[in-house]
Amino acid sequence: MSTIQGSTTPRAIQTMQWALNPIGYMETNRRRYGDFFTAPISPLSDDSFVFVNHPEALQYILTHDSTPELSAPGEPNRIVEPLLGSRSLILLSGADHRRHRKLVMPPFHGERLKVYGELICNITKEVAATWQPGVSFVARQSMQTITMRVILQAVFGLAQGERYEQLQVSLTQRLDMVSSPLASLLLFFPFLQKDLGTWSPGHRVQQVSGECDRIIYDEIRERRTQDNSHRTDVLSLLLAARDDQGEGLDDVSLRDELMTLLVAGHETTATALTWALYWIYSRPDIYQRLMEELKSCDASDPLAMTRLPYLNAVCNETLRIYPVAMLTFPRQADQDFELQGHPIAAGTYLMGCIYLIHQHPEVYQHPQEFNPDRFLEKTYSPYEFIPFGNGVRRCVGSALAQMELNLVLATILLTRSLEFVGKQPVRPQRRGLTLGSSPVMLQCSGYGAIG
Ligand code: HEM
Q1: What is the distance between the terminal CA atoms of the chain, rounded to a whole angstrom?
Q2: Is 37 in the pocket of ligand 1 (CB under 6 A)?
Q3: Fewer CB within 10 Å, N- or C-terminus of the chain?
Q4: By the 8 A CB rule, do 114 and 283 touch?
Q5: How far does CA 195 lie from the centroid of its chain?
Q6: Topology of 11-447 in CATH?
Q7: What is the mean pLDDT of each run of 10 residues along the chain (451 residues)?
Q8: How far, in Å, is the centroid of ligand 1 from the Cα of 224?
Q9: Domain boundaries, the chain
């Protein structure tokens, strides 16, 4: 058996490297240590983290993450606590975590999901109508407006009104505060978020957080006084939920759960859409093939647009090459065990490194190349292509996100003509806890096939 190796650089410096240049950090360690390496990237504790970059090893971990050997505790995710609160699904463990997942899942799956199809197309058309011919725009801002409106509808059932507008503005401001690589240090070193006076970054963070909370609590209090029995949004379902003793959720738990879904549910999808637009409009071959495929599709049927093989392949390749979530949440070894010849000590945290698995040369030929055809030529296992994680913490919104990707892109392609006008090449860069891109600039040159 061989012990897992890793850099001996001090923890605070490795945390900085991971925060400022995550791709460099992952690639360098993989080159030096291979499919498993230790990564002390939590400044909050002495916890021992191991990055797992091999599909079979990750399959073992994620199919055993609710057994006496391994678990998926919320405790090591406390980096998100200042933003999402201690009652966020992401911070819950064990039975509490299972119960909350059951509560929030239904609106994001099955029949309920179909309801959002038309809504997503309409919101996309509204936003696309604001693009003026000849005037360039930042793709991310428009994509974020679309995904924010979709998630506000799913989570609150809010489609318009003053509170809806205010929440959009405050939430965007709050997330933008940690969006640049440098500002993300606020997340990794949480003492920087403390209010140390008017000029400290923490002061502004606290101000904007307070504003978001005020709006969410106002909505919760108002909805408690209403009959929500006919409504199917997440807030209504959470308000109706009762535990074994007949107790409902308190306001703080509700706020934390809503904030979690709002944040997890729109930032990620907006990033993936931005990348997809970049690939489509900077690669004429891809654009032409998508337009050919869309010609044969009934544009008034959202369901048909989610079943287009080449569009699906473009979306998958977008999520493969620069996965928005670079890592799964940590899984903890609760006993000593052996993983592909490596001893894992009880207490170790194992993180699936989605980025390095998606770049694994044994799985993907020429992994640095954007090539949607690979998804038409081969079926990858759910541990080789794993943008949404797996196991007991698999992404709650994966089905909604995949549907949004297809529908937003198809609607834009059909209704507007766009050109990529930014600086080449667009590069991946950290955005908060996720992997975003340098700015993608687009310009509208007119209406599309049915615009
Ligand atoms: C392209 C878009 C998205 C990507 C790439 C993504 C990716 C992920 C990943 C990798 C995880 C961790 C899974 C694991 O540890 O095994 C996760 C968890 C989660 N995602 Fe997503 N996600 C996306 C969109 C969404 C949306 C639309 C929602 C909202 C409905 C959402 C809500 C969540 C929540 C609540 C969790 C935590 C689950 C738990 O702790 O049990 N995500 N996501």
Answers
A1: 62
A2: no
A3: N
A4: no
A5: 28
A6: Cytochrome p450 (1.10.630)
A7: 93 92 97 96 78 98 97 92 92 93 85 86 95 94 94 83 88 78 66 65 76 93 91 87 83 93 92 98 97 90 92 98 97 97 96 98 97 98 98 96 97 95 90 93 80 56
A8: 28
A9: 11-447
